[in-house]
Amino acid sequence: MFDRLNQPISFRRRSESTDAEEATLPAAAAPAPDGPSDVEAPQAPAAPVVVPLGPATTRAPRSRRRTSSLVGLEIEPGQLVAVKAHVNGRVVIDRAVGTPIAPNLVRDGEVTDVDGLSSALADLFDGSGLDRRVRIGIANQRIVMRQIELPPILDPKELESAVRFQAQDEIPMPIESVVLDYHALGVTETAAGPRMRVLLVAARRDMVERVLLAARQAGLRPEGVDLAAFGMIRALRPLDVPDGERVLYLSIGGMTNLAIANGATCEFTRAITNGIDLIVSEVASRCGVPFADARRLIASVSGTTTGPRPLVSVADSDPAPVSAPTPEEPTENEANDAEHEEYARIALGDGVRRIAAEIRNSLDFHLGARGEGPVSRAILTGPALDLNGFDLALGREIGIPLVRGEVELASSAAGGHVPMSRLAVAAGLSVEEGPQ
After folding, report:
1. How far apart are CA 426 and CA 95, in angstroms?
2. What is the largest CA-CA distance in the chain?
């Protein structure tokens, strides 16, 4: 969404003449080194700033421009993925690189260590062969998306003024501390007459500036900031969905990124802090093992959550005391391994249920708030796909048919060493439009 970022923070593409006439926003203030803060930046504008969003999921095809060659960059807790992709009936990956990152660099989708992330980004792009012009995907709880209704307004300046005015009632954040963008979805007939539907997005300015600072310090040239949810929809939208049918998109890794779309139009998105990393952290703490070992332990027991054994709760799963070993009994190390595996299996089952409960709450909220039709299917991507049986267990818990969402590779080497499960969002961020 937030596009053309060589100078200002931005979301949406505009015409070249409009870009030339725009006044550049103030330079981003250097963030405090101790992580995100709700304190307003000293240079925050006195009024909400409407800035251009990146390629929306709702845009009609436009002429090819320089930004069509951007690299999509997903910055998520625990991982970085950069992808150059194109569209040929489907989103196809030309080149990809990725790397795990320390858990303290990005927390709940927000950059907490600018210098550490900058170093990781520099290492990722050095020798990658990828262009350094990037479109960055963001997902966290300091981003708000709303659909609002206005009287039909044809004049762009009048529409912008109307959006500014109504945004003050729609955004649950200090309006002077956010950057805004909007996109008109079209005019619809209502009981009150024709109304223009407008997609409104707001993000905390300090959060966006922190991401941009880390990228620029790494030698990257951010030319767009987009919602990661929009990239996910562009990459994974099935072309056989009838008009009016709603699809649930899920990217589950360090956190859970959820989106509901009607065709290419995103109607609802939410970032949920529950994800695979929370499950791994619980196992690491309970079993007294490093985070990386806990992740391997979770992977080793995945699949057993869909087997015939009941999924009990961690609260009901205190391990029985281990008796003194005899020559016929397991050694102490073997008993500990078995205990750790059992706890990991239980924690994974509990984690699936927690994530499913958050998803169901989001679905209920969307249905209740908008009165739209129910979701007919769900598409899952992200590191959760690497856990055997996770998709089956989650689909059973949310009660919606769930399929694996993956993109295509232009060649066997295009994905590099990045698992296929982790490529979709960054690929969607790379392209201007999804398949039509």
Report:
1. 11
2. 85
The answer to whether 80 touches 205, Cβ cutoff 8 Å, is no
What angle is formed at CA 16 by the lines to CA 15 and CA 21, rounded to 5 degrees?
100
- According to DSSP, the β-strands at 106-107 and 110-111 are antiparallel
Q: What are the tens digits of pLDDT across the range 59-77? A: 333 333 444 579 999 999 9
306 HSE (CA, 13 A, CB side): 13
Rounded to two decimals, the pTM is 0.80
Q: Are 166 and 148 in contact (CB under 8 A)?
A: yes
| One-letter identity of residue 209 | E
- In DSSP notation, 244-271 reads T-EEEEEEESSSEEEEEEETTEEEEEEE
Give the position of tokens 């000293």: 42
Domain count, the chain: 1
Q: Tell me the mean pLDDT in the region 261-270.
A: 91
- Quick one: which of 97, 101, 98, 135 has its CA closest to 118? 101
Specify the CATH number for the domain of residue 13: 3.30.420.40
Tens digit of pLDDT for each residue in 149-204? 999 998 999 999 999 899 989 888 888 899 888 888 889 888 888 999 999 999 99
- Per-residue buried b or exposed e for 270-280, using 16+ beta carbons within 10 Å of the residue's own CB: bbbbbbbbbbb
Quote the domain boundaries for residue 49. Answer: 2-240+406-430
Question: Is residue 121 in some structural domain?
Answer: yes
